[in-house]
Amino acid sequence: MIKSDQIQAMQKALENSIHDYSFGTHPNALYEPISYLMNIGGKRIRPLLCLLSYRLYKEDYESILLPAMAVEVFHNFTLMHDDIMDKAPLRRGKETVHEKWNANTAILSGDVMLVKAYDLLLKMPENKLAKSIALFNQTAREVCEGQQLDMDFEAKKTVTEGEYLEMIRLKTAVLLGFSLQFGAHLAEASQEDQERLYQFGVNIGIGFQLKDDLLDVYADKSLFGKQVGGDILANKKTFLLIKALELAKGPIAERLDYWLHLEDYDKNEKVEAVTDIYDELEIKSLSEDKMRDYFERGFDQLPRLHPSSAEGLRLLWSLAEDLVNREK
Known about the structure:
Blueprint: H1 5-20, H2 28-38, H3 45-55, H4 65-86, E1 90-91, E2 94-95, H5 97-100, H6 103-121, H7 126-155, H8 161-186, H9 191-218, H10 221-224, H11 230-233, H12 239-247, H13 250-261, H14 267-280, H15 283-299, H16 310-324
Helix pairs in contact: 1-3, 2-6, 3-4, 3-8, 3-16, 4-6, 7-8, 8-9, 9-15, 12-15, 13-14
């Protein structure tokens, strides 16, 4: 992904800020896992969107690096706890915290990360604090609601398209929306522009998750960086599977049911068989249409903004298009 020098400068400033920030030192077993997780990579998309949103109205984005970091710390807190719930062995190609240490340490370190996110939020002008905390709290609650719905879906026999879209809105998209709204709020943008940026973030966030669902099945293996078809192997109720269960009839439905309930199977054979069913039902095309619909809803908000900087808008638009067009 090719980015402008200005976006790369923002990313470097964020990385330096994260690297230089002290989460704590004693006891080491509590704080070392936090530094470990925060420094094993990640795209830093959420704090970067916060900075870019601020940059639409003011140029001194360095002044909000610490509040923007709060979004990244909160995001990683959710990942640390999600990995425990999912029993995930790897995160960004490295051992997850609960695997490298243990589950109890991961729970406690995650708890401290949430506290540190609030500490970082305090690094803003006092007149911005009350609204920022209220928006953050609403977002944090919704992310937890989305995670619970995702776990509930594992036990549900049937999940509707509407239920799935609402789950990913909460679990994934609202934090992108908050990141953009937060940056605009700190830059004293109008309430109308703050809401437009929030809607931009939520809609492209849903689009990103739909794209992840697609890439899990249809990505180029050499680019994807992880098991293609992992969702198929886990019988995960993604948009693709939900639509296939809705549309499959007769023999196709029987074949899909067979693979969903088969316990002893060859991994490659199952991925190929279920992908063939998706192809017969034109699930890829349906998913792409839904994904594009949400991306269009998001990008429709940008021309309605009233930024102080045309260059700032170009930077935000450029980054969002790069993310939309990614192949891994």
